[in-house]
Amino acid sequence: PVLDTEDAWLSVEGPVSIVELALEQKRVHYPLVEHQFVLCTVLYAIMRLSLKGVKPLSLFDSKGKNAFFKDLTSIQLLPSGDMDPDLLTVRQQFLLKVVSAAVQTLCSSQKDREVSEEEYFPFEKGKNWPTLAADLALYLQISEDVVRRHYVCELYSYGMDHLGEE
Fold this sequence. Notes:
Shape: elongated
Protein name: RBGPR protein
Pfam family, one: RAB3GAP2_C
Organism: Helopsaltes ochotensis
Radius of gyration: 22 Å
Domain Rab3GAP regulatory subunit C-terminal: 1-166
Number of strands: 0
Number of domains: 1
């Protein structure tokens, strides 16, 4: 980008402006940032929903694991479209576990005190965990429909038929 400055600012001496410093930075490799975002979302879901026995790095292949420890400005080989079926199974089980835990947490809290989802997750207004799991399925190369079907089944099994119909 071209930055126009006034003549009065050209003669000013002192430290370099933050805008000039920002423009001198290398550009990040966006797919690598997106890959890091997926890991952060997985870790947050594990923490927030208290999922036990989940190994987050087991959801990624060797290329994906190596990419986590590289500089964000470097161009890295990320996982390709062809994935190991065992890895896809582990990913699918993780997403289904997220949906089950979210529905269980929501339903148990509503039965205890008639608490809304926003009150139970106060810092996450508007965060719908099953929808987040479906969005995460796109990044993890899992069918979104499998996650949504599991969500509906969980709603019916916890007696939330009106939500399951929607």
